Amino acid sequence: MKPAKAAEVVPARAAAGAFALRARELSLTYAGGRRALERLVLSVRPGERVAIIGPSGAGKTSLLRVLATALRASAGDVEVLGVDPWRLGAGARRRLRSRIGLIHQSPPLPPRQRVVTAVLAGRLGAWGVGNALASLAYPADIDGARAALERLELADRLFERCDRLSGGQAQRVGIARVLYQRPELVLADEPVSSLDPALANHTVGALASEALERGITLVASLHAVDLALAHFPRIVGLREGAVAFDLPTAEVGRALLEALYAQEGVLPTQECRPVDLAELTLPGRPRCD
Amino acid sequence: MRLARDPAALPRLALAALAVAALLPALRLAEFDPAALLDPANARPMAKFLAQFVPPEVSVEFLALVGRATLETLAIATLGTAAAFAIGFPLSLVASASLSLSALGPARDAPLRRALRYPARLALIVLRAIPELVWALLFVRAVGLGPSAGVLALAIAYGGMLGKVYAEIYESAAERPARALMEAGAGRLQAFAYGVLPAAAPELVSYTIYRWECAVRASVIMGFVGAGGLGQQLELSLRMLNGAEAATILAVFMLLVLLADAASALARRMLA
Questions:
Q1: CATH number at residue B62
Q2: Is the ipTM reported for this complex over the cut 0.95?
Q3: Do A108 and A140 fall within a single domain?
Q4: Under an 8 A CB cutoff, do B102 and A110 touch?
Q5: B149 φψ region: left (φ > 0), alpha (ψ -120 to 50), beta (else)
Q6: Rounded to a whole number, what is the distance in Å from the CA of A246 to chain B's nearest CA?
Q7: Which residue has the higher pLDDT, A272 or A67?
């Protein structure tokens, strides 16, 4: 191994104990001039489960894409799993990316691919090219793919084609892929937006318990406030590209939420039940069972 | 308040007008004059030659000759297309912008990496800029008369075409699947195999088969300059103004193209 590689790995390990994620004065302006993030500050410790809520257009997706190293911020510093991804060489950045799992709001599954292949693709970053190509001829780890799908109650779809799935099933296949990837950091962008309330609750629960069991970090943006409050011990409210509040769930009150969604006029929640804000402040209670 | 106007309308109109305007000088430069075909001075010898086409030549020894030439043509087209694939496919992976790892972010070295794609694109341009017929003339000088000149010519010219069109097919496929895989640490080849190939495979296969069909026709033309196959046979028949033999050979061409069509349809159905 080249000495440069070792030098890149050592600080990552040394700093890993401090922060899983750290954003300092992060700003992002898109090519069209739209400002998505404004001097955003956020740190997440390893093993934390954080929900990001906020009105649409607040910058939730942009923030998650920057944290996933898919986008580079226009200004400010970002640290992911203890390193600044943009100071790494291309090879080291690839290895870093294989430790980060991003769940997309609309799952990026190619049509005509089978579910088993789509799930196994989660570990391409860890596999060599030879293994990857051999797995196209015969799936390399059918049991592993099945286990990941089982957690999302989709094991019966193992050999189905992705373009024959419903929107909700496809979204869960996208989640199963990231579970199979076994990343150290899971970033989820509205992971349950096309699921019905009961399934959404179950799926977010599965993500949260997976994170808890494996001691990994989970940051999820959620449209439904009640889901966020029910499954996450820490809530970050995002508005206009900056952090409006960042509190333990027990301290998130009606006034804060109403201020966050002031322009919407309503609090977005799942439809299964009228929302009682007093009840919402109790963390860890499933809403829809 | 003013009504909002579609800002794309004017450029679209200008582009369409430009495309039509480009045709006008082409008509003059090409000296395109369909009336010349109907001129009796031209039409009479043409009709006389065409009259010889029926009945086609079906003697056993001529059919055996044509059969051998057909196999030779198929071999030239198939080997040539395979060699073109070996040249074009790796170049297409390098030339395609949709498999760019450095575009994620984008990374600081993205302009440099983008610049690395240009030599591949330039190579593809050089390969296909020179028609296969010219390459065939060159290779006939280099390796002598016969099919191997045809194979080499096809490999080079079609390698350039396959590479360019493959790269465009990758770019026209949805880019998110491959991008998402690269965001999760996959390399270019892996992102291609798992993110691009599933969506692009039918188009890649059908274009490759179409190229093979073109190669069959091109190998015929290259036969005229001595690169073997049916073309060499047709050239002999035409030079001797033997319409019956020419008719048989042309019928075989049609059969070959039909065959290629059926193969392409079958492959597409299997991949649908």
A1: 1.10.3720.10
A2: no
A3: yes
A4: no
A5: alpha
A6: 27
A7: A67
